[in-house]
Amino acid sequence: MTLGSISPSPCSDLCNFVRERTGQNVLDCYQCGKCSAGCPAGYVMDLGPRQVMRAIQLGLKEELLASKTIWLCVSCQTCSARCPANIDIARVMESLRWLAAVEKTTPAEKEIEVFHRAFLGVVKRFGRAQELLLAAWYNLLSKNPLANISLLPGMLTRGKISFLPARVKGGVEVKRIFDKVKAIERG
Amino acid sequence: MTSQTYAYYPGCTLRSSAKEYDISARLVCQKLGIELRELEDWACCGASSAHTTSELLSIALPARELQAAEQVGLPLAVACAMCFSRLKHAAHDLADEAKLAQVSGILGKELRNSTQVVHLLQVIEGCINTVPLTRRLSGLKVACYYGCLLVRPREVMNFDDEENPQMMDRLIETLGAEAIDWDLKVACCGASLPLTRRDIVLKLSHRLLSQARQLGADCVAVACPMCHSNLDAYQKEMETEYGERLELPILYFTQLVGLALGFSPKQLHMDRHFTDPMPMLRDKGLA
User: Fold this and answer.
1) How many cross-chain Cβ pairs, A to B, lie less than 8 Å apart?
2) CATH number of the domain at B134-283, out of 2.60.120.10, 3.30.930.30, 3.40.367.20, 3.40.50.11810?
3) Rounded to a whole number, what is the distance in Å from the CA of A110 to chain B's nearest CA?
4) What's the distance, CA B170 to chain centroid?
């Protein structure tokens, strides 16, 4: 076997997608593991960040999109800050979520995906996020009407909840941004 | 006293769960001679969800606010660390001309990407020495918690050291308090997961507070409403989950500055926190 035959080349389609969308070349990763060592959510992930980088190199798209990891990453960017190969790993992780959205993969951490959908649903309709609406919307979408109500009394007595949705005058503008982005992404 | 003017972007949480951050920031800035002109009709920057869903949306939403600041021709001061991160990321990505043209098209407005984005911590730390303090916060030990988004990644945020930032520590020491030396000042608190994976938030936030407490901190200072909410609102749950008494007040850095500038805890809305800081402040002779 020649050395050439074991080099990870040509790059997988997935490598190319990631490079196009994030400018990051995952082939620079030499598996040192510093990302996994510093990842605060690593202990609940099914694939550590180092394994994610390797899986992208190998083009294991289905495994990656079905993983819990891409949803559990909280974008703290510790991995990106510490990567000796200067790969913005958090950005790479984000791009896998974008891909999961495009491919309509069933998310392994459903609630987290629902939360983000609820958040953006509120922003699209009202122009701003608002905790009470967000929690209500999230509960509705996740079909769990009584979730997360334990904090409500404390939030109320401390004046931490505003009841009126803060509708932005330029709300139409915000909605237009959402619509235009969607149109562009659909090609 | 200094004389500076900024366009001001409070961000959504400062209208609801983090009102005390907005109120204390305005009081402090007024006293320091910093004029904050709130952006008219500002909208959400997309944090914490747009960037997990769509690259283009994560740039276009903050770009609307960058464009609005460009119109008034002022640097943009941001209170929330999440918003600060998203606005800085957008400005960074818009340095690409093709992206700038695409996003200008989405906004339907001319966008030059000329807005300078700064965080209130930078603004206030930069001019705290220009007015005399009304009272020094002597004897107060503060764990300065920066979290993730102010400092990382360095090439985008251009804020302070990524692993051991000092800006808030310097500010707190200027107030006469002691900034404790601890190694979790840029560790993650669990971010936007409290509604979905509370277990992770409790574990990560508990680790932070437990260390701060062991090192003798009287309170934790923060510059991010999300960090504040995780560390404060869920503290009782952490105590139950991990069987450890924490009772560590979580204060916005603007509230501590306000205290040193002579505002009362009431004026600074310190009664809005879940962990009541009043017993600690009375104990230190600060209330």
Assistant:
1) 164
2) 3.40.50.11810
3) 9
4) 16
Report pLDDT for A138: 83
User: How far apart are the C-alpha atoms of A28 and B199, rounded to whole Å?
Assistant: 34
Tokens of B44: 């959400």
Determine the 3-state secondary structure of B222 from DSSP: strand
pTM for the model stands at: 0.94
Cross-chain residue pair B16–A132, CB shorter than 8 Å: yes
Domains of chain A (ranges, CATH numbers): 8-103 (1.10.1060.10), 110-186 (no CATH)
Per-chain mean pLDDT for chain B: 95
- Classify residue A37 as exposed, middle or buried by CB count within 10 Å of its CB (0-12, 13-18, 19+): middle
CB-nearest to A129 from B44, B57, B187 is: B44
Chain B stretch 1-60, residues whose beta carbon is closer than 8 A to a beta carbon of chain A? 12-13, 15-19, 41-44, 46, 48-57, 60
Within this chain, domains B4-120 and B134-283 share the same CATH topology: no
pLDDT at B285 over 90: yes
Average pLDDT over residues B211-224: 98
pLDDT at A2 over 50: no
Query: Is the CB of residue A77 less than 8 Å from the CB of residue B148?
Result: yes
Residues 193-252 on B with a CB inside 8 Å of A are 193-197, 200, 204, 233
- Of A166, A91, A108, the C-alpha closest to A133 is A166
Of B43, B50, B273, which has the smallest distance from its Cβ to A168's Cβ? B43
Each residue's pLDDT tens digit, B141-172: 999 999 999 999 998 999 999 999 999 999 99
B interface test, pick of A141, A181, A182, A184 with most B CB neighbours within 10 Å: A181
ipTM: 0.91
Question: Domain B4-120's class?
Answer: mainly alpha
Query: Which chain B residue has its CA at the smallest distance from A87's CA?
Result: B153
Band of the pLDDT at A4, cuts 50, 70, 90?
A: very low
List all residues 6 or more positions away from B129 whose beta carbon is below 8 Å from its beta carbon.
B174
Domain ranges for chain B = 4-120, 134-283
